[in-house]
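dumping the sequnces here before i forget
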Amino acid sequence: MVVGKMKLTFQKRVKLAQYLWMLSWFATLGGAVTFTLGCFLKTELRRRGEVMDNTDIHCVPNTLMIVGLASMGINYFASRICQDALDPGRFPRWKTFLKPFFGCSVFFTTLMLISVILSYAMKGSLETSLKIGLKNGIRFYKDTDTPGRCFQKQTIDRLQMEFQCCGNSNYRDWFEVQWISNRYLDFSSKEVKDRIKSNVDGRYLIDGVPFSCCNPSSPRPCIQYRITNNTAHYNYEHQTEELNLFIRGCREALVYYYMGLMNTIGAVVLSVFLLQCSVLASVRLLQTSMEAVAGQENVEVDSEGYLLEKGVKETFMEYVDPVLKLLWMNQVTPPEAKAEAGAS
Amino acid sequence: MVLLKMKFPFQKRVRLAQGLWLLSWVAMFSGAITFAMGVFLKTELHRRSEVMHSMDIHIVPNLLMAVGLASVGINICAGKVCQDSLDPSRFPRWKTFLPPFFCFSVFLTSLLLVAMILSFALQPSLEESLKIGLKNGISFYKDTDTPGRCFQKETIDRLQIEFQCCGNTNYRDWFEVQWISNRYLDFTSKEVKDRVRSNVDGRYLLDGVPFSCCNPASPRPCIQYSLRDNSVHYNYEYQTEELNLYSRGCRQALVSYYMGLMNTIGPCVLFDFLLQMAILVSLRYLQTAMEGVIGQENVEIETEGYILEKGVKETLLETKEKVKRLLQLAQVGDASSTTPGTQPEEEKPATA
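..and the predicted 3d for all of it:
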């Protein structure tokens, strides 16, 4: 059962080859754009790599970069094929190359679609990774004298200022950790001793946040210490105060930012995917219609082009069989050799 | 005395025309880039216009934009002229157009050089403008309830965070103004009353700075209040503390930023200027070489090209005479239309 059969006159074949040549150049550009977007996404993820616990999400930009490069190669060959297609003398040399070419192309084009799906599917993994990363960042905020953690303070401060966020889920995350180092605490003072005795672990916990949580849009100078104490500040009620600190948590801010990026990239990659599919379908039609003409004296006859000679399942098995045979051959021969040795 | 005479055989003329056509396309792009850079500089100046007192510095990007646009037009004309130059039948129609075109183009191209010089010459003016603008911004920091000034706080805060600076010259500028509004001061407390009484104007002055002066690179949590009092903070000496706040003043930070921008734009503008002058000189040579060919039967003869027919001084005098004559004609035309009675008087001496 032939799939996608079409009659192609000589003029139609010529037009198809010409349009395909132009389309393949656009698709090459599309592949380059995909590669660039992959690089950009990877750079952005690496910039905030210090507040991410794992690098699982990096599979999305990695896939995009691979697919972009592959797509540039595929479309380059597609343009060469359709340049040679109208010359019956030069077309036959592509004969053996075309089957693996189509196999590879379909594989990489499917990979493009998979990368778009992945970018949405990995949102949960990104959120978990950020949750753990930010939790650690906030815990190690005070350790500016510990090698390996000394930059956490600067990282978290700059992150909170740039993304206009405070803490992991909200500003109250800062109340649960000691973010002021012991080096700057006067242990002879009563206040410090009281606070340390007030909890089991002996940590100096306060209802205060670092300065990077302060919102510049607030009409009054920032209140960062004794936030929950209304009497400590004149004309202040922490329940109704909204503009003093950033309300959003950094986890939400970062997830929102990256999802926005991936939505934009996903839309562009999807259009490149459609372009790529149309290029491959056109090359296939051109190839099959030229094969019908090959060997004939009069090249200007009508011919039929099709997408698949047999049905989808049968064609898939045709491609997969050689690969399976290669894998099976290594397993089948040793028992046969043993049986032969036994028989002789 | 002809200025810079050169011989042009037919082949050389053809090559000149072709090279000039290509160069005019490059110069067109260069002009577009100059325009884009002017727009960018203007946008950047506009973004920080709230802390600038005067708009004098805007003349630099305005000039760049005007000249960039004009240069695109000039180069399109130049391209058209050299397309027509190799066809002796189409070239003569440009005859009357070319001399004013050259004057106009040379004037506009020299404006590029003027813009470059201005970008360095106006640095003191920019600094002065920023000094006054920042002083006002810091004075009105607390007035978040006064219409027209309510955004000063946010502007100054975001400026200090983005440019990593504090105050006008340094952080001590904040000690001299009241930057906490009276709405948030408890006038019944002793501390507030003491501070307000301690100075003539009754302002609440303190040795503290807003949070936006805090440096994230500091190893300790930010100290913004009681900066001069070592005893208030544990293990703190304000004389040796360097990383706590930003040490740079915002005026210096902004001047440094804008000078950096203009230093980057400068070489590109210079390149555009040189390219444009090269095109104008080549076009002049082409025009004068082609004028030697017009009217002749054999167009493949050798001709001479020059920049100016006479010397520089004589050409300037000639141009002055031409302009005077044009102005006189305009005046005489007005005079003859308003006083017809003078004519019989002129005839009288003839008859006498």
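The longest strand of chain B covers residues 6-8.
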